[in-house]
Amino acid sequence: MGFYDLSVEKSDGTQLSMADLKGKVVLVVNTATGCGFTPQYEPIEKMYEKYHEQGFEVVDVPCNQFAGQTPGNDEEIHEFCQLNYNTQFPQMKKADVNGDNAIELFKYLKSQKGFEGFGKGPAALAMGVMLKKIDKDYKNNPDIKWNFTKFVIDREGNVVARFEPTADMKKVEECIASLM
């Protein structure tokens, strides 16, 4: 099974087949509306505007698994993102990214790129301290650790990078730009 064999439910209940994204560079991200990382919607939208015409797509999957930071329904989430960040990329149906009810897309992405750490800096340190209280072994499993974990897929459907929420968004854009 590969990236193009998967699909994800859109907020309107229809399916988005990853096969429809063949030949495009794709950013898949689990998002939240009430998180300290929520302002990352702004640089994601800027990348979408900058690279969309060149074949860049965003697959935004809202998720409420991390401290209940996405409490609204799909319509409320979409409205929040449009009002606060003027997002133009499509949002998928709110879904789980970890555990028994995780959607297949995230199961696949995690199998391709596991957790490699939060990097350096205060946010990275804070995430490590917080997660160690939740799961002492968090470093050794591929689970999504928090909102705004990002996966970059190249034009051939390969998962080429995983960026934790603490990653510098400039590094995310550099990765995407290198594939355009």
Mind sketching the topology for me?
Elements: E1 7-9, E2 15-17, E3 25-31, H1 41-51, E4 56-62, H2 74-85, H3 104-112, H4 122-134, E5 150-153, E6 159-163, H5 169-179
Parallel strand pairs: 3-4
Antiparallel strand pairs: 1-2, 3-5, 5-6
What can you see in these coordinates?
There is one protein chain. The protein is of the alpha+beta class. The protein has one domain: Glutaredoxin (3-Layer(aba) Sandwich). It is 31% helix and 16% strand. The strands form two sheets. The chain has a four-stranded mixed sheet, covered by helices on one side. A two-stranded antiparallel sheet has the order 1-2. The model has no long low-confidence stretch (mean pLDDT 95).
- Beta-strand share of residues: 15-25%
User: From the alpha-carbon coordinates, what is the Rg to the nearest angstrom?
Assistant: 15 Å
Largest sheet: 4 strands, mixed
Spans of at least 5 consecutive residues with low confidence: none
Q: Let me know the number of strands.
A: 6
Terminal CA distance reads: 25 Å
What is the name of the CATH superfamily?
Answer: Glutaredoxin
Proper CATH architecture:
3-Layer(aba) Sandwich
- Taking all residues together, what is the mean pLDDT? 95
Order of helices and strands: EEEHEHHHEEH
Query: Based on helices, strands and strand pairing, what is the structural class?
Result: alpha+beta
Dominant shape: globular
Strands of the largest sheet, in order across it?
4-3-5-6
- How many domains, in number, for the residues? 1
CATH topology tier name:
Glutaredoxin
Helical segment tally? 5
Overall helicity: 25-40%
CATH structural class: Alpha Beta
GO molecular function: peroxidase activity
Organism: Pseudobutyrivibrio ruminis
Pfam family, one: GSHPx
Family: Belongs to the glutathione peroxidase family.
